[in-house]
Design a protein that fits this description.
By secondary structure, the protein is of the alpha/beta class.
């Protein structure tokens, strides 16, 4: 099985989707039985860094813009030979050859449009129309996301599979030194408040 994964969220400032994608790819590659895992755009997965753009960011973004706006069948060329192409929401043109899959993280653009910019909500809705509706299979990160996608987007329940995000191994073995480095980097002295959320309002 030759699987190509759209790695474009790894190139931009993101939080949840970027983390999800990074660890999912690492886990797939650690198990040879999952098949040949390729990435487009090609990225180096040595480290997940939310604070600094890696050097391959700008060539990767240029390739995404070319795919989305050139009018040429570039996704067919970049994913050539793949059996499956798993799409994220930055690449807009699905290739014709491989079967298409994608992950449904949430439907907040429909449920809470006031919490999104008009542009972001519009992008999510176009992606749902262009990709979710034609996908051969979809992953939902929760039962709630699956139910919302069926109810709000009219997607067939049979093609949406709930696969909860895992927890990266690093979180099970946090050393005192790692805690100290994190506190120093974030200038986090008590008292402080930890907010586990998103960058949208």
């Amino acid at each position: 099985m030759r699987i190509c994964i759209d790695s474009s969220p790894l190139l931009v400032n993101s939080a949840g989707v970027k983390t999800y994608l990074y660890h999912w790819i690492q886990s797939l590659r650690a198990d040879p039985s999952k098949g040949d895992i390729r990435l487009f755009p090609p990225v180096n997965l040595r480290i997940l860094n939310h604070f600094q753009k890696p050097p391959w960011t700008y060539p990767g973004i240029a390739s995404i813009l070319a795919v989305n706006y050139s009018g040429l069948p570039l996704t067919d060329w970049f994913t050539g030979g793949s059996d499956i192409f798993h799409m994220s929401n930055l690449i807009r043109r699905a290739p014709n050859g491989p079967r298409i899959t994608a992950t449904i993280h949430d439907t907040t653009a429909w449920l809470f449009p006031e919490m999104h910019t008009v542009r972001n909500a519009g992008n999510d809705k176009r992606f749902a129309k262009d990709v979710f509706t034609r996908a051969d299979g979809l992953i939902a990160v929760s039962q709630s996301s699956r139910d919302d996608a069926v109810r709000l987007l009219g997607l067939a329940p049979s093609k949406i599979h709930v696969i909860h995000p895992g927890v990266a191994p690093a979180y099970f073995d946090v050393t005192a030194q790692a805690v100290s480095r994190a506190r120093k980097f974030l200038a986090a002295a008590k008292p402080y408040c930890l907010f586990v959320g998103t960058i949208e309002p």
